[in-house]
Amino acid sequence: MDSASQKSEWMPKLAAHALEHGITGLSLRPLARAAGTSDRMLIYHFGNKEQLIADLLAFIAADLTQNLTTALPPGPSTSRVACLTEVAGLMRNPAMRPYTQLWFDILAEAARGQSAHAQTSAAIMAGFVGWIRSRLPADDPDPEGCAAHLLVLVEGMVMMDAAGQPEVADAALAAYSG
Amino acid sequence: MDSASQKSEWMPKLAAHALEHGITGLSLRPLARAAGTSDRMLIYHFGNKEQLIADLLAFIAADLTQNLTTALPPGPSTSRVACLTEVAGLMRNPAMRPYTQLWFDILAEAARGQSAHAQTSAAIMAGFVGWIRSRLPADDPDPEGCAAHLLVLVEGMVMMDAAGQPEVADAALAAYSG
DNA sequence: AAATGAATGTAGCACTCGCTACAAGGGCTT
DNA sequence: AAGCCCTTGTAGCGAGTGCTACATTCATTT
Questions:
Q1: Cβ partners under 8 Å of residue B9, min gap 6
Q2: Residue B34 CB neighbours (<10 A)
Q3: Residue B93: which of B13, B51, B154, B144 has the closest Cα?
Q4: Residues 97-116 of A with CB under 8 A from B
Q5: How many CB atoms lie within 10 A of CB B74?
Q6: pLDDT per residue over A123-138, tens digit each?
Q7: pTM for this structure?
Q8: Is the distance from CB of A132 to CB of A62 less than 8 angstroms?
């Protein structure tokens, strides 16, 4: 078995472990155990921990975008409010929680200037703003500004959920819709 | 010198170190060095690391609220847009960056259900929403909903800054104001 | 003066961390 | 069959972790 196929067998299990436990305190030995191998092998195939995490995040990001499009097939919404409701409903769904938790891990390190994660987080947000723009009504007068506005709202709501204040997120959604 | 005054001498230096390096990977020996003492003494006076961090966060929270009221003295804004502009300007200010970084540390652990930090984060957000409500124009028809809406917007913008996408935050602000 | 108790330095324990040296297995070519 | 290289297991290194046992200093109390 060559190196590439070995990695691709490990990837789903590695990703599941990272999604459950985060990447901040991630250590090789339990991670390897979760994939049915040893830290020795992970280092051998990925080079070092940093590269392993980079590959892992790339894999998870791809997995996430697929899940998103499956859950919410592309196509414009009927209004800005409808678009916000759909996107917020998806991003705040409990099924998204592992991704959200990982997202805050990445964000915390990006905020401290950890360059690899800063690039990752910027790329993820850039992808999201484009995704929301593509879902706006086709006749929206300011798709760019509106997409930014909606993303900021959605991510703010996700933060409120994580902070244990979902009522604040609900109230914000109601204030925008009403 | 009794234990209380010993702690209060350490506190500013401990807080400065925590604000600079975060609390996620915080270890006692460098922290003690920053305060001019030893890990041995920190444990002796605080009991254990968990209690030390709890005390530290309480100290920093008090410090932050004082800084906020100094920077933006209380009193209602002239409009919702003015309120958002003022609050966002304050929270996105580079001077707030250490606090923001620490905030994302807390949030990441709260999102994973670490109960101490979950309570802390909920309390901080509850304080903020009340603070914003007190700054809204006195005749606002829906102070509660509007305060929630503005907090979600501001925190979303702070997140975009941390994620390396300040343009998205700016665009969202413009979209709300315009 | 003797005794008590709080405060602090020194040294270390038991553990985990990322990573590596070494050797052995196993399939390949020559 | 001989040599070779990719892969893997075993064991361990050096550093760092929170925390503690022990001994000592020093001020206060009796």
A1: none
A2: 17
A3: B154
A4: 100-101, 104-105, 107-108, 110-112
A5: 9
A6: 999 999 999 999 999 9
A7: 0.96
A8: no
